[in-house]
Amino acid sequence: MDRNNITAFILIAIVVGGYMFYTSSNQKPLTNKNLKALQTQQAIEDQSKNKQTAPEIKQAPDSAFSSDRFGKYFSKFYTKSTEIVDIETDLYKAKISSRGATILKFELKNFKKWSGYQTQLINDSLGEFSMSFLTLDGKRVDTRDLSFIFDDETKNNIVLKGKESYTLKARLKIAEGKEIIRTIKFVGNEYILDHNIELVNLDDVIPQRGYNLAWHNGLRYQEHNSVDESSEAHAMTSRGGELEELKVDEDKKKESTQTGKVDFTAVKIKYFMAAIIPNDFDGTTDLAGSREHHSDKGLVELYEMSYRVPYKGGVQSNNFKTYIGPIEYETVNKYGLGRTINFGWWIIRYIGEYFMMPIFNFLHKFIPNFGITIIIFSIFMKLILYPLSITQMKSVAKMKLLQPEMDKLRAKYKDDQTASQKATMALYSEYGINPMGGCLPLLLQMPILYSLWAVLRTNIELRQSSFIWWMTDLSVPDVIFNFGFSFLGISVISGLSLLMGITMFFQQKMSVTDPNQKGMVYIMPVMFTFMFSSFPAGLNLYYFMFNVWSISHQYWINNHSSSTLTLAEMKAAPKKEGWFQKKMKEAQALAEEQGKGPKNSNQQRNLNKTRKK
After folding, report:
1. How far apart are CA 211 and CA 311, in angstroms?
2. Domain spans, the chain
3. Could you tell me where the beta strands, DSSP code E, fall in 98-231?
4. With CB atoms counted within 10 Å of each terminal CB, which end of the chain scores lower, N or C?
5. 3-class SS at 245?
């Protein structure tokens, strides 16, 4: 491995290390003591929030203001009592509140929180997907404080299977012929809800600016590492296929307003999201985000999305679909929400979405264990990257073969670095070696390796999926040692990152031949071991296995390949001057023409003395 390879590895390490520092700088490390306290606290919290509530009436939190705040139109509808309708489908259990006809609870049946309780996504005690507006008499109204009446045929407990559907209708009748009607349609095998909001003859109640339809308080966090989950949390708006994202980057509220024809808005955490998909909406949407620090829970980011829906008078109906559920590629893609999955940017996204993900999912259809799927996938990727890796490995083998000659040059020109570099370039040219031959293939692999990182890191299929031994969840680090403190965001050692570091050591040992670079054999594996210790176990399993295959391949090339060259064969082989070598020669010739070419040390000293005289 020559200096260019080492430089490439160092640059990669800086990029990865910088990312790790950025995503982990706000994380408070969990000692055994406060981890136990957090688990106890989370268990109590989840247990209380997952208990079955009474089927009919529930007391809502006390309002901070009196009922006269709502003015002559809506004061009579103010209430602290809540009627609950329970909906159970194949995929979720939902509770709909009569206060604003909002979603009070949305519990996914096929997913669990890290603490073992069912995933419940609603994070606002007053419910989500609510309306608010300013009345013509100057009162600001949030319909979550007002009591809607469910239609007479409404049942309190609805169970839906397969394609069965149920439509729930709630009314706020302000006066004869004046009302707000909210309709929600549920389907047994769909995460999507169909909402319809109808304003009837409210010209003298609500101005033309209309109402805001909002999701207020993000989603409840589901993973143990809140900092890692926050790194994937954000809000977004899609207009004409172009995605605009809002991400909080400091401890103050951040807002964004977009106007145009809207495809959807969404708020998400690492593996789950809520999205509002309008039916033909051309107008203004607002996104907002804020960050909270908790002594035990770490970092939490909350995002809000809302639509400004104008009211044109008379009877007006607006339709919205709401997706609340997992970020599964095939599921969200059929609703036009595929862009919400973070596959990376530009070409990396296309590699991940249309190449990596389909292959990985195809393999998993035949291999139920995700750990084995990843191992097979690493073999497949090794074959795909063969043209690039074989070039890199042959370059390493040539450099190792040429090492004795390079040692002679270093000894000969040990006091003249410039002359040594010139002689080394001549040696490369004589034996047909491209100095960039090992570095360039490594750099060309980086978009593929990064897209793989994006696919495995956010793939919900890996979440809570066990492999063998201590690897009980491939979506989180397989921690085998916790320091109890954090340095540059590093507080743990993972078993697979340690194995990956060991294989990297042997890989470096086989590749590095320059005595001046022997330190890298030890530095790089240790550095990557620490940095990768906070990566998901599934990702480190892939890197570990990829290194194993690379070591085996390199050993075969060095010792058993029928195409192994000798120095004499390398020297006699036809030479093809590469682009990099041409540019180096041109630069060297230009420098010599300008009188700045390489000179030996004695010539340089005599020239300096002459200039001084």
Report:
1. 7
2. 3-27+356-558, 32-341
3. 102-112, 118-120, 130-134, 140-142, 149-150, 157-159, 165-175, 178-187, 192-200, 211-215
4. C
5. strand
Residues 336 and 269: their CA atoms lie apart, in Å, by: 18
Measured CA to CA, the distance from residue 285 to residue 206 in angstroms comes to 19
* 185, 165 contact by CB (below 8 A): yes
CATH class (in words) of the domain with range 32-341: mainly beta
| Per-residue confidence (pLDDT) for residue 413, from 0 to 100 | 78
Ranges in the chain, pLDDT < 70: 1-67, 154, 294-297, 388-397, 431-432, 434-445, 485-489, 511-522, 557-558, 560-613
Residues 6+ apart with CB under 8 A from 496: 471, 478, 537, 540, 541, 544
Q: Which tokens hold the place of 538?
A: 């599934």
CA 486 to each of CA 28, 30, 368, 478, 497: distance values in angstroms, whole numbers, following the listed order? 8, 9, 36, 17, 17
Closest C-alpha to 355, from 337, 377, 372? 377
Question: What is the Cα–Cα distance from 72 to 257, expressed in whole angstroms?
Answer: 32
- Reduce the secondary structure of 191-206 to three states and give it as a string: CEEEEEEEEECCCCCC
Residue type, 258: Q
Q: In the block, which residue shows the tokens 């696919």?
A: 455
Contact status, residue 276 vs residue 303, Cβ threshold 8 Å: no
Tokens of 451: 């897209």
- Say how many residues make up the chain: 613
Backbone angles phi, psi at 13, to 5 degrees: -65, -40
Quick one: which of 609, 599, 584, 608 has its CA closest to 413?
599
DSSP string, 433-471: --TTTTHHHHHHHHHHHHHHHHHHHH-GGGTT---STT-
Question: For residue 581, what are its two tokens?
Answer: 């070598």
| Token pair recorded at residue 35 | 């981890």
Q: Which two tokens mark 312?
A: 């044109």
Euclidean distance between CA atoms 197 and 220, whole angstroms: 26
CA dist 461 and 441 (Å) reads 31
Helix (H) or strand (E) holding 556: helix 537-559
592, two tokens: 């010599």
Distance of CA 583 to the CA centre of its chain: 40
Output the pLDDT for position 30.
39
How far is residue 415's CA from residue 410's CA, in Å, rounded to a whole number? 9
Closest-CA residue to 116 (of 224, 199, 16, 214): 224
CA distance 462 to 535: 13
| pLDDT the model gives residue 513 | 59
